[in-house]
Amino acid sequence: MRTLVVLSALCLLPHAANAQAAVASDLWRVADGTQVVPLALADGGTAPLWTPAVVLGDAERVRVGIEAINSPTEIGVSGGLVALTIRAGRLGFASLTYGRLGVADVAFTETSPEAIGNVLIYSQTASLGFSRRIAPGITGGVAVRYLSGELGPASRSQLGFDVGARYASAHIALGAATRFFDPTLRAAVGAASYNLGASWSSSAFDAWGTRASVIVRYGVTAERGERAQHLATAGVSLGGTLALDAGVSGESASGDAVWRSRLGVSIGSGPFRIQIARDGGVNGFGATYRFGLTAAFK
Questions:
Q1: Which of 22, 93, 169, 185 has the CA that lies 20 to 30 A from 153?
Q2: Cα–Cα distance for residue pair 171/69, rounded to 1 Å
């Protein structure tokens, strides 16, 4: 019942083209909501899905990321992401990603409450990206993405071309990136989002027997026909073994303020890093969790 309401809402959108674009992209908002880092500054194993401007550490040659997304039964969205980033010689860095999110066990009914079948609801994306350092502290990247989805009787597939850039110094990081952008500016442009991010990190200091730093971040995401979503988080990093982050995102829907809490924990050991993140849901309703593993190899 919860998802059939979503299906009805899409059918009532003023432009059918926008509704079709939403079929292919809207489920990714659930995954977006579990990020404690602005999308344009994403740096984990699945970063190539959020921004094309991906860079590996000086000692890294290969980075692999795997993540699982799970939301409660009130929302019912679950799925996974996988990404691979490698050094590609003079090209810089090459990235491959695939992700799929879906809603299971949604019954279809007609005139009676008896189910006569299930509604297929999913969205998936695959991409190939290239990035490189174009100046000291500045990285640029491009990505070609395939995006498809199905929501009951509505289905859509499209191509996108994304660009991204980031600047990083000792204490400041800035980023900008598009996602699912259609350069032809046709119907598929309704699936696109435009992301900006900034962060500040303190100088390292001694805490609990290790070197620590405090990080403050701000990000904004804009989509066609909607008010911008704002994200503010702060965290502490304890060496390379533990990072804790918390914050809030806010946007406006139908004139009402919508707030979501964000929490994240990252634990590192050798080449591996485990990430656990929580999106508190719309005004505290229906939390969503992300479980991830990143492996970086020299």
A1: 185
A2: 31
Query: 23 is written with which tokens?
Result: 């079929």
Residue that the structure tokens 């659930």 belong to: 30
The CATH code belonging to domain 2-297 is 2.40.160.40
Q: What is the Cα Rg of the chain in Å?
A: 19
Query: CA 197, CA 31: separation in Å to the nearest integer?
Result: 17
Structure tokens at 274: 């485990």
Question: Can you give the pTM of this predicted structure?
Answer: 0.85
Domain definitions of the chain by residue range: 2-297
Cα–Cα distances in Å, from 289 out to 4, 77, 196? 23, 10, 23
- Token readout for 297 is 């190899």
Kindly provide the b/e burial profile for residues 173-204, where b requires at least 16 CB atoms within 10 angstroms of the residue's own CB.
bbbbbbbbbbeeeebbbbbbbbbbbbbebeee
CB 138 within 8 A of CB 3: no
